[in-house]
Amino acid sequence: MTTSTEAEARSSVRTAAHKRTRTAKNAVGLGLRMRRNWQLYAMLALPLLWLAIFAYWPMYGVIIAFKDYNVVSGIWGSPWAGMKYFDRFVESYQFWRLIKNTVYLHVYELVATFPLPIILALCLNTVRKKWFSRSTQLITYAPHFISTVVVVGLLVVLTSPNTGVTNKLIGLFGFGPANLMGDSGMFRHLYVWSGAWQTMGFAAIIYLAALTSVPPELHEAAIVDGASRLRRIWHIDLPAIVPVAVILLILNIGSILSVGFEKVLLMQNSLNLDVAEVIDTYVYKIGLASSVPQFSYATAIGLFRSMIGLVLLVLANTFARRFARSSLW
Fold first, then answer.
1. Contact criterion met (CB below 8 Å) for 309 and 257
2. Which of 32, 107, 215, 275 has the highest CB neighbour number within 10 Å of its CB?
């Protein structure tokens, strides 16, 4: 009884000391904490400045979506238009074509490329020879650092009807040359699988990092119990990366109306425009590339796309929290 009483007394003393320490820390003002840790706050300065200038300040311009914007009159001098431009977009003949092209392209890309980094990470994690694993990682990471312009240039060269390697191979089987970049049926395939080649290796880094948190003792115990390598991947490695995969999937669903603007624009031509025109490129053309820029109309379309993305993000997060027990918030 005496020992138990002494232990409880020591525990009470430690708890009281911890509370006093926490209270003392809370009593220290923000200014003093910033002076003591100014190096950390200095590191945050540039990212916060970038966020304020390029992410939050441009939101001020969203107002022109509800105005008949005129450059001479300025934002506040232009008359209010209400929902005029939103109605115009929804009622235009371009609306469903743009929605269909954007959603189809993004869903195709998501279904085709989302599992690939997971599969690559699981395979690399099971390789025993480190030199082979590291060489494979280097080879698969490298395309990520190639510019989008260069990737599209490679596609143009490889699929050229006259000198392209692809058409040379097709010719070996007795088929004539084909203009693959001008074929609307091939546009989505070229876009998605070239993107998979470019991003798969770099995206696998996140999953490889998650796999490092798996305790080796779990694999050792599974081996003792006679589990095969495939069983260990399914029951140990895969559950470890599910939370990360769910979060990335939520973010992908939230950007379902946003695709790779630069790449789509570079791959567009007059022959594949019926499937290659997406919301981002349409906004760019009517808002900046047109001889008579329609700033209010373009802003309204962009805001419409962002609002739909926000709704989808919240819904995806709600479903993930309810069924997968993992979410962004």
1. yes
2. 275
CA 244 to chain centre: 13
Q: Is the pLDDT of residue 2 over 50?
A: no
Q: Helix H segments across 28-129?
A: 30-36, 38-51, 74-77, 84-91, 95-113, 115-126
Say how far apart CA 106 and CA 16 lie, in whole Å.
Answer: 56
Per-residue pLDDT for 216 more than 80? Answer: yes
Distance from C-alpha of 151 to C-alpha of 168, rounded to nearest angstrom: 20
Amino acid in position 24: A
The β-bridge partners of 80 are 67
256 pLDDT band (50/70/90 cuts)? confident
CB under 8 Å to 102, separation ≥6 — which residues? 256, 257, 258, 259, 278, 279, 280
Across the chain, which distance is largest between two alpha carbons, in Å?
95
Q: With the CA atoms of 27, 30, 31 and 37 taken in that order, what torsion angle do they form, in degrees rounded to the nearest 10?
A: 100
Residue type, 135: S
CB-CB contact of 177 with 161 (8 Å) = yes
Whether the per-residue pLDDT at 273 is higher than 50: the answer is yes
Within 10 angstroms of residue 2's Cβ, the number of other Cβ atoms is 6
- The Cα 206–Cα 196 span in angstroms is 16
Asked if the model's pLDDT at residue 196 lies above 70, the reply is yes
Q: Does position 250 have pLDDT exceeding 60, yes or no?
A: yes
Give 131-140 contacts, CB < 8 A, sequence gap 24+: 137/201, 137/204, 139/201, 140/200, 140/201, 140/202, 140/204
The pLDDT, as a whole number, for residue 317 is 86
pLDDT tens, residue by residue, 101-132: 999 999 999 999 999 999 999 988 888 888 88
The model's pTM is: 0.81
Cα distance between the two ends of the chain: 47
